[in-house]
Amino acid sequence: MKVRTRFAPSPTGFIHLGNIRSALYPWAFARSQQGDFILRIEDTDLERSSQAAVDVILEGMAWLGLDPDEGPFYQMQRMDRYKQVLAQMQAQGLVYPCYMSVAELDALRERQMAAKEKPRYDGTWRPEPGKTLPPVPEGVKPVLRFKNPQGGVVAWDDKVKGRIEIRNDELDDLVIARPDGTPTYNFCVVVDDIDMAITHVIRGDDHVNNTPRQINIFRALGQEPPVYAHLPTVLNEQGEKMSKRNGAKPVTQYRDEGYLPDAMVNYLARLGWSHGDDEIFSRAQFLEWFDLDHLGRSAAQFDEAKLRWVNAQHLKAMADEALAPLVAEQLKKRGLVADERLPRICALFKDRCDTTVALADWAAAFYADVNPSAQETAQHVTEAVKPAVAALASALAALPAWDKPAISGALKQVLAAHGLKMPQLAMPVRVLVMGTAQTPSLDAVLELQSRELVIERLQKA
């Protein structure tokens, strides 16, 4: 049987890292098993769903490389199919109309809670042999309720939580269609999973309470349910459930902040799954290693400092030619146009950076004016060193070639002539040319700048 997984987000808020992890694992499992990964947008909440939220889902998944094999499918475009299955269930006596009003239902629940009972629908309108139903009220459109099995248990072997058993008597008869005929979430999910031949449902554990209801609907429709794996919650840095309300950022914001997609996949993979003690791994390694047997049972906590560290490791390992276009994109946002030097600039500075934004901060000095701080200028570009800086400008102008050996030779010549040590000259030169006193090897930095620009900046001393 071919593995088929799905990611089924609701576009009622911008997708964050806690949500996207629920896309990563089914995507990875499908890829690791040569299966199919399906994207389904559950947009039946018309009041809260938005196209902007859909766009962030699609953009975020595309950025992370979580490409679906099928979809996106939209539930609102499948209404005819749901109504067809509802009609089939009505014909088979699997559902029944319920005329209990919201006020009656509220009053029932209040009585049950007062009696220390679990609040639940009591089956007033459920047809049974020999039972007389109340008279149908005039002008009231009923909901449709599913005839949940009575007695026995509904059970499944969860790939994360282990064996779970729920007594059917704990479950009331679920509303599966509203008075206007529109189907409800738990019913639509089952029809979708059947039609799309989903074999494994890997989702957040906030869905655990829906699972027994969905399994009973599967079986009523003559289908075996898929394998379930309910993932523990992702907590934010304060230990609360990650959510937009608690300050979680849209996934696309991490792209804009200079994180690498492979680093994000690496970091997210470790929020609930592990392969021994491996912290840093490639996408290919992740897909080779991933399985459902090493999913964690306890909630994982997001840590931005750890994410930045993981990103820095991937940045260092990335080929300079592959990194350069990402940095060029960051420079473009600042109105700067990169050139053929950028891969070499990336090579020189990437070990100092944890995002492409930080790398663009360094690269900008090669494509825009620099503005050293007054404090650094006063500290390093002193009256005592200015003659040596002027001498270096002249020596660099006279070089027959503009390369590291020639630049290094000019530096040594000026140091000897003025009786200085390298830091005494290098610091002010860095401040003038790069805007900061801390850079990699000075000859390597100067080589990547144009000779004219270096001399122009040194002459400002």
Automatic annotation (TrEMBL):
Ranges spanned by the short sequence motif 'KMSKS' region, renumbered to the chain: 241-245
The keyword Aminoacyl-tRNA synthetase is assigned to this record: yes
Sorted UniProt keywords: Aminoacyl-tRNA synthetase, ATP-binding, Cytoplasm, Ligase, Nucleotide-binding, Protein biosynthesis
Catalysis performed (reactions): tRNA(Glu) + L-glutamate + ATP = L-glutamyl-tRNA(Glu) + AMP + diphosphate
Primary enzyme class: ligase
Gene for this chain: gltX
Pfam families (UniProt xref): Anticodon_2, tRNA-synt_1c
GO cellular component terms, semicolon-separated: cytosol
Family: Belongs to the class-I aminoacyl-tRNA synthetase family. Glutamate--tRNA ligase type 1 subfamily.
Chain segments carrying region Disordered: 118-140
Organism from which the protein derives: Hydrogenophaga borbori
Short sequence motif named 'HIGH' region, residue ranges: 9-19
Keyword Nucleotide-binding recorded: yes
Any one GO molecular-function label of the UniProt entry: tRNA binding
Positions contributing to ATP binding: 244
Main location as per UniProt: cytoplasm
Cellular compartments annotated: Cytoplasm
Role description: Catalyzes the attachment of glutamate to tRNA(Glu) in a two-step reaction: glutamate is first activated by ATP to form Glu-AMP and then transferred to the acceptor end of tRNA(Glu).
Segments passing through the bilayer: none
Protein name (database record): Glutamate--tRNA ligase
Coiled coil, from the record: none
Domain Aminoacyl-tRNA synthetase class I anticodon-binding: 329-461
PANTHER family: GLUTAMATE--TRNA LIGASE, GLUTAMATE--TRNA LIGASE, MITOCHONDRIAL-RELATED
Assembly: Monomer.
